[in-house]
Design goal:
By secondary structure, the protein is α/β, with parallel strands linked by helices. The chain has a single domain, classed as Alpha-Beta Barrel (TIM Barrel), CATH 3.20.20. The chain is built from nine helices and eight strands. The protein is globular and about 45 Å long. The N and C termini lie close together (11 Å).
C-alpha cells in the first residue's frame, strides 16, 4: 500500500466529487492507494474558527465520498485553543479523521500547543506540522524545525510529522535526529538527489514518510524521491506506506 501523507483539497470549483475525484484519477496513474487530506480552500494564515470548521468539512466530505482512499487530518488554528480542542473532538474523537494538521497561525513551540498534543496522545493521532526554513525569510509565525523540535521534545508520547522536513532537509534531519517520536516527510520540495538517502542514513527508514503536498506539487515528482533513491526494497516499502500504516493504526 502506498500512502501519501500530505495532500490538500483540490480547487474551489464544483462539488466535492468534482474536486476530489479529479485528484484520485492522478493518484491512480502513479499507484497511490490512500491520501492523507487536510486544509480546505481558504489558505488564510490566521483563519477564524468558522473558516477552520468549513475547511474541515470539505475534508470530511471527501472522506465520506471515498472512505477507502482518503484519510482526514483535522486542521487547527491553535490561537483559538478551546475551539481547537472542540474541533479535535468533533473531527477526530467523534468523527472519521485520524490525524491533526497545523500550519502557520502560531509558532508551534508555544504553550497553546500543549493541550492539543496531550489530547492527540490520548487519541493516538499523529500531528503533521508545516515547517520551513526560507533564505528569503519565513512568514510571520511560520515554524522552523527548531520550533518543532522543542514541541516534540516536550511530548514524547505524540507521533509528530516534520512537514517538508523543514524545507532545508539537510538541516531539518539534523535538528530532529535525536527525537524518536519524530517522522520526516519528503513532501513539497524540489526532487533533489540524496534527500531520501540522507533521511534513511540519519533517521532510519522507519522514520521517513512519502508525501507530495499535492496539488501544489505533483505526485510523480515527489514519488521520484523515493523510487529513485539508492535504498533497499524493504526500506522503500516502509517509506511509501508501511510507516504511515503503523502511525494511523490501519
Amino acid at each position: 500500500m502506498v500512502i501519501d501523507c500530505h495532500v490538500h483539497v483540490q480547487g474551489s470549483y464544483g462539488t466535492a466529487e468534482d474536486r476530489m475525484g479529479y485528484l484520485l484519477e492522478y493518484a491512480d496513474r502513479v499507484g497511490i492507494d490512500r491520501l492523507c487530506l487536510s486544509l480546505g480552500t481558504s489558505r488564510g494564515y490566521q483563519p477564524d474558527m468558522e473558516t477552520v470548521r468549513r475547511d474541515n468539512d470539505m475534508v470530511r466530505a471527501a472522506v465520506e465520498l471515498h472512505p477507502e482512499r482518503y484519510v482526514g487530518f483535522c486542521y487547527l488554528n491553535p490561537c483559538y485553543l478551546y475551539d481547537s480542542l472542540d474541533e479535535i473532538e468533533r473531527c477526530v474523537a467523534d468523527g472519521p479523521f485520524l490525524g491533526i494538521k497545523l500550519w502557520v497561525a502560531m509558532f508551534c513551540d508555544q504553550p497553546n500547543l500543549d493541550p492539543i498534543c496531550e489530547r492527540a496522545a490520548e487519541l493516538g493521532a499523529p500531528i503533521l506540522q508545516h515547517t520551513w526554513m526560507k533564505i528569503t525569510g519565513n512568514l510571520e509565525f511560520e515554524s522552523t524545525p527548531h520550533h518543532f523540535a522543542a514541541l516534540a521534545r516536550r511530548h514524547p508520547d505524540v507521533s509528530f510529522i516534520l512537514g517538508h522536513s523543514g524545507g532545508n532537509w539537510e538541516l531539518g534531519y539534523r535538528i530532529v535526529q535525536d527525537l524518536p517520536n519524530v517522522y520526516a516527510e519528503v513532501a513539497g520540495g524540489d526532487p533533489e538527489l540524496g534527500q531520501t538517502e540522507m533521511g534513511v542514513a540519519m533517521l532510519g527508514a522507519e522514520r521517513i514518510l512519502y508525501g507530495s503536498d499535492a496539488p501544489g506539487r505533483s505526485f510523480a515528482s515527489q514519488l521520484a524521491k523515493v523510487h529513485g533513491a539508492d535504498i533497499s526494497d524493504e526500506q522503500r516499502a516502509l517509506i511509501l506506506g508501511g510507516n504511515m500504516r503503523r502511525l494511523l493504526h490501519l
